[in-house]
Amino acid sequence: MEFFIDGVPMQAEDGQTVIQAARANGVDIPHFCWHPELSVPGNCRICMVEVEQEKGDPWFDIACNMPVTEGMRVLLHSEKIVRLRKQTMQFITLNHPVDCGICNKSGECTLQDFHYAHNGQASLSRDAKTHATKFFPLSDRIMLDNERCIMCTLCVRFTNEVSQSKALCAVNRGDHALIRPAEDANFDNDQYSDNVIDLCPVGALLSRQLLDHARVWYLQPTRSVCPGCERGCSIDIWHRKPEWALRALDPRLNTRIDRVTPHENPEVNGLWVCNKARDLAALFERPRATQATLGGAATDLATATASAARLIAAARHPVALVSSWGSNEELAAFATALAPHVQPFVKADHLPLPGEVVEDHLLIKPDKNPNRRAALALFPALPGTLAEAITPQTDLVLVWGEGFDGSAVPAGARVIRLDAYADPVQAQADVFIPVSIQTERSGHYTNFAGVVSPFTACFAPAAGIAHAEELFRAIGLALAPAVAGALTGPAA
Amino acid sequence: MSGTKFFMNFPVTETSHLLDAYTARGGYQALAKALQMQPADVTKEVSAGGILGHGGAAFPAGRKWGVVKLNDGEPHYVCMNADEGEPGTFKDRWLLEHVPHMCLEGLIIGSFALMGRHAFIYIRGEFDLPYRRMAAAIEEAYANNLLGENILGSGYSCDVVLYRGAGSYVCGEASAMLASLEGKKGWPRNRPPRLTVKGLYQKPTVVNNVETLANIPVIIGRGAAEFKKVGTPKSPGTQMISISGHIARPGVYEVEYGYSWEKFIYEDCGGMQDGAALKCIIPGGVSTKLLSAKELEGLTLDHISAVAGGSQLGSGGMMAIAEATCMVRVAQVIQRFYHHESCGQCTPCREGMGWMERILDRIVAGHGRMEDIERLYEIGEANDGTTICSLGDSAGYANTAILDHYREEFEYYITNGRSMYDGRLTVSDPFASALAGAGARG
Ligand code: SF4
Ligand code: SF4
Ligand code: SF4
Ligand code: FES
Q1: Inter-chain contact A91–B385, Cβ cutoff 8 Å?
Q2: How confident is the model over A443-488, as pLDDT tens digits?
Q3: By the CB < 8 Å criterion, does B233 face chain A?
Q4: CA-CA distance, B183 to B203, in Å (whole number)?
Q5: Dmax of chain A from CA atoms?
Q6: Measured torsion, CA atoms of residues B257, B262, B267, B271, in degrees rounded to the nearest 10
Q7: Any idea which ligand is nearest the CA of B394?
């Protein structure tokens, strides 16, 4: 059906509200409390619009709860609406501390933006503000500043409707109303709790990870994929912009993951991610392996690569355990370059940790590896036990990635390991080559449903670290003549 | 003599609220009659009676019932709004205490008309005696086959749930009441959808005031035509009025619509205490705009006349204010109430109520500024029609009406840092002379 916004004709579908139809036509009506995925409480009142009536006085109502009707004429910029929006912003900032200078949301705060866009005037109040709890620990992960809260209830509705933990509620009345944990729930148990930090339009819900660590204008997002499970949620990894790189202090701060936010992807995760994605910094920033070794002695990458090729060429019953964290590109390179020379099996790099939620109603999937589906499309899965794959005849085991304890390797068999993180067992390998991690390379993962999502490098790997994709090609090249022209003798 | 009385027409005794007494007065005959009719015809009769809701908004009750589609396959609910909490309003309380069966009978008839299987009574938590009497009435009704399975052998079954509120003013607002009944926070909801489309548990629901429902047996019993003979053509029937303030004889009265307002104040209620002059009337609870003594002249007690006079009859909670009362203080007291009761859900009301109270507190403390008057008007305007429920606009109207009428009192207070009337809220202080004797007063 046709309707009009400020005189411009637009199309709307049956059942759409004015705010939905406006958005579908590229017009953004200011809103705090409305969210496309949550119920409509209509409490912030910033989305008030005027509707011209054929006869009689105009009608004023909130765009987020008003269905569009045929021929409806909506005004967003009438004198009355402009005044109402200004008054609403006056109300919103009345008891808000307006401490933008020290607020972690500054730079991303809707209140700040709307204040400039729709009010731009100092408070008309001559009276003291009401005060509320400044730092209320809502959970181990989230701090609540009640003074900044504008009671949009997005966070409460999220826990009721999306995460379903029902962990938050509103208590008290009037300008004493507060967001609080619900009495019988624990927000720490909500696997999706950190989404409320993004949802909060002001700096009321603060990530204790990010709080006082960085300001958003120092940061830039890089599109990535959460490797936490086979869902492979699309995310943005935020890190320091090059132009704000630190020369003093700890230079590692320049290659730190400062925060992770969902990257909207209707096919995979919609607008949300679970807390595991938020904690990628801890996962990726574990102590790294940086040195190639031969039998525990340091060597350079080229020597290690050549040695690996020699070992493979020499082996009669070589077995390879393929990483289910490898990208589609890496897996393809492995398939082309190495699969003809080894017996490959796909292994799980990560299993659920004790206490970890294995699967739930929303996003979390049981397989804790991001690319097992793609790996299984190329290579067989490990049989029931490792011993069935690695037999007494096995004379070489190539292990790519984590999640292999080494005890199954038959005595006398040679071992090649490719890993990104430091582990004492690496010294026992005949050849060890450190490889890059997801944040240091670009590629794609295929999730459990077959949806392919890209990730992009955020940081350069340290010198001496190989990209697995290039490494496989190099080994493959080295293998070609070696295999073709008889063996050149035992490997070093 | 204020005309026909439907409710206050029997001597109140220790047992007059019980079932026996009620049936002896003809009680439950209307229910028996209704159960012989088609449900839709009951609604038609109520519509024909022309009764306007007695909760404050004065919406035609029959029309509200008529919206519900009887054959939509959905459960329908009727909820009696017994959460009387408007300051100055205490007339439903009389009905609940003295004619609980009449209220209940109206509820059962309403539920039958809407083909509801369950009906609800949401009663104000502070109403202890009314609650106990209603609970006892429900028990008596069950014991006598007036509730439960197959009522009076008609084939119609109905259960009534009596629910005690926890004492929040806003839970008297129909949508907040349903949220509270559902066990949620008593926050008003946005319309659309209307409650008659999606109400309790998202099912079509009619919420009616106690007095409205108590009128139903009268309409059905007498027939719409007879009912309409009482009152005025546009406001048929009677109105329960609770009057308080500086009035000589405060209390609950029943008047026939169209009765002279002045006669009611000066004769039936005995005029002002201590012979003081009337300054103004708050007609129907503090949410309605006040009327000065002058504006009251010639008005009658009915909806048309009240609206023509610039206000509303509201919930029938009338307050009389005598000359020499400080209207700045009156505004402050009213605003304190609204600030306390704002549910805190929507921005203009949540923030505006406290702001208005702080401004008024400051004026009363002698630190007012002239700009405060404009600010009070603006906050009222910003709440007008912009909030989820009408608490926000009501507070604005209440303040604006006081400012419109008594602006000079505010200006005087601001300029001089003190009240024109020494901040008085009472006509006379019964302890004044004693205290003066003891030297406690300056
Ligand atoms: S904490 Fe944030 S999201 Fe929650 S109600 Fe307050 S402003 Fe809204
Ligand atoms: S659901 Fe899986 S992929 Fe998505 S954020 Fe959580 S762990 Fe990561
Ligand atoms: S107007 Fe006031 S009481 Fe009504 S919903 Fe809004 S905040 Fe609550
Ligand atoms: S966005 Fe419509 S009221 Fe908040």
Answers
A1: no
A2: 999 999 999 999 999 999 999 999 999 999 999 999 976 555 544 4
A3: no
A4: 16
A5: 98
A6: 130
A7: 3
A478, two tokens: 């080295």
What is chain B's pLDDT, residue by residue, as a tens digit (442 residues)? 689 999 999 999 999 999 999 999 999 999 999 999 999 999 999 999 999 999 999 999 999 999 999 999 999 999 999 999 999 999 999 999 999 999 999 999 999 999 999 999 999 999 999 999 999 999 999 999 999 999 999 999 999 999 999 989 999 999 999 999 999 999 999 999 999 999 999 999 999 999 999 999 999 999 999 999 999 999 999 999 999 999 999 999 999 999 999 999 999 999 999 999 999 999 999 989 999 999 999 999 999 999 999 999 999 999 999 999 999 999 999 999 999 999 999 999 999 999 999 999 999 999 999 999 999 999 999 999 999 999 999 999 999 999 999 999 999 999 999 999 999 999 876 554 444 444 443 3
Contacts of B384 (CB under 8 A, 6+ apart): B393, B396, B397
- Written as one letter, the residue type at B70 is L
The interface predicted TM-score (ipTM) is: 0.92
Type of residue at B415? T
Q: How far is CA A402 from CA A111, A329, A418, A470, in A?
A: 45, 19, 9, 19
Probe target for ligand 3 pocket from B169, B350, B390, with the most ligand atoms within 8 Å of CB: B350
Mutate: best of A53, A83, A126, A146, partner B, most B CBs <10 A: A126
Q: Which of B231, B206, B9 is nearest to B98 (CA)?
A: B9
Q: Tell me, what amino acid is at B290?
A: L
Q: Which atom of ligand 2 is nearest to the CA of A235?
A: 5
DSSP calls for A190-248: -TTTTHHHHH-SSTTEEETTTTTT--GGGEEEEEEE--SSTT--EEEEEEE-GGG--SS
Calculated CA dihedral for residues A377, A478, A311, A470, nearest 10 degrees = -50
Indicate if ligand 2 lies below 6 Å from the C-beta of A225.
Answer: no
Contact A174 B350 (CB under 8 A): yes
Alpha-carbon torsion, ordered A67, A73, A78, A84, to 10 deg: -10
Q: Do B382 and A91 touch (CB under 8 A)?
A: yes
Query: How far apart, in whole angstroms, are the C-alpha atoms of residue A447 and residue A440?
Result: 20
Find chain B residues with C-beta within 8 A of A179's C-beta. none
Q: Are strands B118-123 and B77-82 parallel, antiparallel or unpaired?
A: parallel
Subunit contact A130:B388, Cβ cutoff 8 A: no
Ligand 3 atom closest to the Cα of residue B393 is 1
**Chain B residue with minimal CA distance to A62?**
B386
Interface-testing mutation among A45, A59, A115, with chain B (most B C-beta atoms within 10 A):
A45
**CB A228 near ligand 2, within 6 Å:** yes
DSSP A106-142: TTS-HHHHHIIIII-S-----SPPP---S-EE-SSSE
- In this prediction, residue A249 carries a pLDDT of 84
CA–CA dist A192, A292 (Å, integer): 39
